Amino acid sequence: MDIPQETENYIWESIQDSLGLPVSEKTLRLKFLASEEERHLLQDQNFILQNQLKELHKRFQSSKEEASMNAQGLRKCIQERETLVAKYAESEKCCAKLGRECMLFERDLEKAMESCDELEKENNELRAQLQDNSTIQAMSAEVKSLQEDKENLLINLQRAEEEVKVLYEDNKLLDELNKQLLRQLQRGKERHGSVHKRSASGSSARGKRKSRRFREGSPFAIEDDSNLEEQSRQPFSPLYQNSPESRLLN
Fold first, then answer.
1. CA angle, 100 as apex, 95 and 101 as ends, to 5°?
2. Region Disordered: which residues (predicted)?
3. Are 26 and 33 spatial neighbours (Cβ–Cβ below 8 Å)?
4. Per residue in 213-225, pLDDT tens?
5. d(CA 116, CA 62)
6. What pLDDT shows up at residue 238?
7. In this predicted structure, what is the pLDDT of residue 49?
C-alpha cells in the first residue's frame, strides 16, 4: 500500500520531534494547519453534538412529561381499578345476599303455592257442601223474608199507633160536641115544655118553626143529617197513611 508523501513526511517529522531533533518551519506550519483543520472539525462536531444534546434534552423533557402524564394516567387507572375491584366485591356481596333472598323467596313461593292448593281444595269442598245444603239456603231466604215482614209490621204498627192517637183526639172533640148538643136539647125541652099544644098539626108546625129558629139563632147550631153523613165519610186523620187509599197500598 502506497502512503502519500505528505503523510510520510509528517510521520517522519513526528518521530524526529519525539526524539528531540529540530523540526523545520514547513513541518510546523503543516502541523498548525492540520491542528486548525482538526480544531474546525472538532468545533463542527461540538456544534453537532450540542445540537444533538439539545434535541436529546428536548426529547428527554418530552419523554419526561409524557412519562409523568402516563404515570398520572396509570395512577388514575390504578385508582379506578381499585374502585372497580371494591365495587365488584360489593356487587358480589349483594349478589350473594340477593341469591340467599331469592332462595328464601322461592321457598316462600313454594309454601304459598302449597297453601293455595290446600285453600283451593277447601274451597271446592265448601262449594260442594254449599251446593248440597240447599235447605240452608232456603231457610236463610225464609229468615230474610220474615225479617222484611217484621219490618213491615213494625211500620204498620207505628202508623196504626199514630192513627189511634188521631182517632182519640177526634173522639174527644166528638164527645165535647155531643155534650154541647145534649145541653142544647135539654134547654130547648125546658123552654117549650110549658106551651100548650092546640092541635097536633099546628103544634108540630110551630115546633118545626121554633126548632128551625133555634138552630138558626143558637151559637151551637145543629147541623142537618146530610152534613153529618158527609162528615162521617171524611177520614178523621189528615195524614195520608190513615186514608183508605194508603191502607189499600199498604
1. 95
2. 186-250
3. no
4. 444 444 444 444 4
5. 76
6. 42
7. 94
| 153 to 157, 160, 162: CA distances (angstroms) | 6, 10, 14
Domain boundaries, the chain: 5-79, 150-187+214-250
Angle at 142 between CA 138 and CA 147, to 5 degrees: 150
Hunting for cell 398520572 — which residue is that? 72
- Residue 46: pLDDT band with limits 50, 70, 90: very high
- How many other C-beta atoms lie within 10 A of the C-beta of residue 40? 10
Percent helix, strand, coil in the chain (nearest 5)? 85, 0, 15
| d(C-alpha 130, C-alpha 123), whole Å | 10
Provide the 3-class DSSP secondary structure of residue 199: coil
Q: Indicate whether this model's pTM tops 0.70.
A: no
The 3 state secondary structure assigned to 65-78 is HHHHHHHHHHHHHH
